[in-house]
Design brief:
Elements: H1 2-9, E1 11-12, E2 29-33, E3 36-40, H2 62-76, E4 78-80, H3 81-88, H4 92-104, E5 108-111, E6 114-117, H5 120-125, H6 132-145, H7 148-160, E7 167-170, H8 174-183, E8 187-193, H9 196-202, E9 206-210, E10 215-217, E11 222-224, H10 226-233, E12 239-243, E13 246-248, E14 251-254, H11 257-268, E15 273-276, E16 288-291, E17 298-301, H12 307-315, E18 319-322
Parallel strand pairs: 7-8, 7-12, 8-9, 12-15, 15-17, 17-18
Antiparallel strand pairs: 1-10, 2-3, 4-6, 5-6, 10-11, 13-14, 14-16
């Protein structure tokens, strides 16, 4: 069943909208990124001791909601249907209809399960003009730029742990890609990765780069599938650097079932498992549980974990390194 799912989604390796927002009722103005929403109470005060509140986003008229979705896409560069549904308290079908409406107006570029902002040139021309490959790169670059300072600090701290004698595995993900940029300065190191972006970056360095066979997952440009897992399991690594979408007391989580199977092989065949995870992912879950806490040896992050997570990490004997 897994193979048919993977094959259905992947290939074998070979005039802005301007709305005057009329206050139907006093409400809070929503600003910020999905998952990091800042509330600014800018509505009129009804009484000295009473502030207006909105407990359900479903009360927003569709036109107002679409305006706010457009502002989120323009600000973050990329949003998912699932994130919008959760953020506004609507169904995913309603979120898709909102994105389709904005796309028809030439305000955003639709992709499968998501939307991206138009480039300035595309917006001025009144159309998207992005190929599927261009859109995937835009989505990835937008995600890579999030928490970029934290990821760079984490990468520098991780690079300090390495020597030229190390035989390492590099997982997929933007945090691991940032580490690869640091590794391009090292000589003689053997790097095994299922991330095409990492391999391409290190191809011109003095590192020896190895990759598994398998299926290319277009969204992440990762190699996965049965062959990738088999090739990975035939090797042994002194250190495996893993990226995740979320970290809680219940373990590490990732958004891709396909990539998670390769992560399992990395974890099982490494002397030391090092998780690269910025603090924005603390307390978040994703589609798949990728690992238990006791499978992690070292966590490198940019800020101390919250108390409950810190206690769970300590109980699992995970060493926590906070990057400067």
């Amino acid at each position: 069943m897994f193979n048919s799912y993977a094959d259905s989604r992947m290939g074998i390796l070979k005039a802005p909208l301007i709305l005057e927002e009329t206050a139907i009722r006093p409400c809070a103005e929503l600003r910020g990124t999905i998952g990091h929403m800042v509330i600014s109470n800018s509505a009129p005060i009804l009484a000295a001791t009473q502030e207006p509140q909105r407990t359900k986003q479903t009360t927003l008229p569709a036109a107002v909601r679409q305006q706010r979705i457009f502002e989120l896409v323009r600000q973050d560069g990329y949003v998912r249907v699932s994130e919008l549904a959760k953020h506004f308290g609507i169904s995913q079908m309603s979120a898709r209809r909102d994105l389709d409406s904005l796309s028809r107006q030439g305000l955003i570029q639709r992709s499968q399960g998501a939307a991206v902002a138009l480039s300035a040139e595309a917006a001025s021309n009144g159309h998207g003009g992005l190929s599927d490959a261009d859109m995937r790169e835009l989505q990835y670059e937008t995600r890579r730029r999030r928490q970029i300072a934290a990821k760079q600090s984490i990468a520098r701290s991780a690079a300090v742990l390495l020597s030229s004698d190390d035989n390492i595995a590099l997982d997929v993900g933007s945090s691991v890609l940032t580490l690869a940029r640091e590794l391009s300065k090292h000589a003689g190191m053997h790097v095994f990765t299922n991330h095409l972006r990492v391999a391409s970056l290190l191809a011109g360095s003095r590192c020896v780069v190895l990759m598994p066979g398998g299926i290319v997952r277009a969204q992440e440009l990762s190699i996965c599938g049965e062959q990738a897992v088999k090739d990975t399991a035939q090797r042994w690594f002194s250190k495996a650097f893993i990226g995740l979408s979320g970290l809680t007391e219940d373990g590490g989580f990732d958004s891709s079932p396909e990539d998670t199977l390769v992560k399992h092989a990395y974890i099982k065949h490494a002397d030391q498992v090092i998780l690269l995870c910025d603090s924005s992912k603390f307390g978040k879950r994703s589609l798949v549980r990728a690992c238990a806490l006791d499978e992690i040896d070292v966590l490198i992050t940019d800020s101390p974990p919250p108390r409950a997570l810190a206690a769970a990490l300590a109980a699992a004997s995970v060493k926590v390194l906070v990057a400067n």
